[in-house]
Fold this protein.
Amino acid sequence: MVKINAQSQVYIILGNPIAHSLSPAMYNAAFNSLKLNCLYMASQVEEGQLQAAIQGIKALGIRGGNVTVPFKEKVIPYLDGITEEARHIGAVNTLYWERGKLWGTNTDGPGFLCALEKEEPNYRDYNHALILGAGGAARAIVVSLALAGIKNITIINRKREKALELAAKAHTLGCMASALDWNEGGLEEVFRGRGLIINTTSLGMNPQEDKMPPLNPLWLGPQHLVVDIIYKPSMTLLLSSASKRGCRTMNGIGMLLEQGILAFEKWSGYKAPVEVMKRELERWLE
Ligand code: NAP
């Protein structure tokens, strides 16, 4: 165990609430395994205090870290710069220093792609992705899929205007994108015609594990790869229903890990100890 002392470098995650965050456990395990004199802390920032919190990061010499709900979008005006990916996504989850400036980037979408590529190296062969939900995570995933060259994306969301807005964003990145809501006719055909289905809604997340997006499992079959980005539980009702229908499935733990690896490498400059971080996450998610 590395001893914390006056030379320790401090990293931080800002959010509200933050007590549930797995990041301190995952990153401190990484620091310990690399024997780095570093510490990663969580800070609950109250509404209206975000600008002061960012000034605090600068004033106190905090080395970088992360931003989570509800500040991923709100933090942007207070940073010195953001990456192109973060600009497209419209949200930041990672803070790092470059040439004396505090920058923001977004590793959620790239982390998702890394996890997907590990499960299905040929994911680009799916010429059509179906996204369930149009919230913050959906935006990161749609932008990253579009930037990776997926040409056709369909988005289904409860509030159709949010699906329309996200489809318009995908259009600007060269995608053919369409927006639907759950009351639309012909959803069965939509599901049958898409190989890659990605649930980004929170339906089925702990503690509401008896919920799933309002689709009929009979619409699913062996041609589908069904991804649920929820990581708790690791087997959602959607994934177990899909599995019973012969689909391949993937849960959200890979995305959680990969976005964390990318963030760690960005703000620390060290190669992430992947197995240590994975074990720590799995321990906390048990
Ligand atoms: P968000 O911005 O609040 O979006 C929530 C989405 O779920 C929206 O599309 C919302 O539809 C939909 N939804 C919620 N309740 C619904 C209901 N009763 N019926 C139909 N649709 C409903 O949340 P987020 O940040 O995108 O996160 C979404 C999920 O992704 C969470 O479970 C989160 O844990 C998970 N996530 C996982 C990772 C990872 O690393 N694996 C990373 C980020 C997020 P409306 O727009 O119509 O309200």
Observations:
- Residues 27 and 40 are 6 Å apart (CA to CA).
- The mean pLDDT is 97.
- The radius of gyration is 19 Å.
- Residues 108, 133-138, 157-159, 162, 200-203, 205, 229-231, 252, 255-256, 259 surround NAP (CB under 6 Å).
